[in-house]
Design goal:
Distance between the termini: 62 Å
Oligomer: single chain
Radius of gyration: 33 Å
Order of helices and strands: HHH
Largest sheet: none
Number of domains: 1
Helix content: over 70%
Strand content: under 5%
């Protein structure tokens, strides 16, 4: 009992309960922050690994297409009796394809890539 005759045990009990509640809330917030951090790391790792795998496939496809085009240019040049003409013909074909791709780059490349990255990051 204190000087006024009130029981101090009941005054301390709510204080202990508030401290306990505060510690539990702090632990909860720390756990949620750690969970968010781990989810972000997982999404980043998943996105990075997808990009890396895509780059490997792109590099292999690039080598294949390059060697195929060299062979095709040599073949066309042999048919036309001038090797260099085959390379010029293929260069012209790729110039036309490049122009078509350039004018359609947003609908063919930018939008689909953006959508894929967003889906990957958001996990949909």
């Amino acid at each position: 009992m204190n000087k006024s005759g009130e029981n101090t045990d009941t005054q301390q009990a709510p204080s202990v309960a508030v401290e306990d509640l505060f510690h539990k809330a702090t632990d909860y917030v720390e756990t949620r922050v750690e969970l968010a951090r781990l989810k972000a790391v997982e999404k980043s790792a998943d996105t990075a690994s997808s990009i890396y795998a895509g780059l490997v496939v792109f590099f292999i496809a690039f080598l294949f297409i390059t060697l195929l085009n060299i062979g095709l240019a040599l073949l066309i040049g042999e048919w036309l009796d001038e090797t260099y003409i085959g390379f010029f013909i293929l260069a012209g074909i790729y110039a036309l394809a490049g122009l078509v791709f350039y004018f359609n780059r947003n609908s063919w490349l930018k939008t689909p890539v953006n959508n894929k990255i967003i889906k990957k990051i958001l996990g949909k």
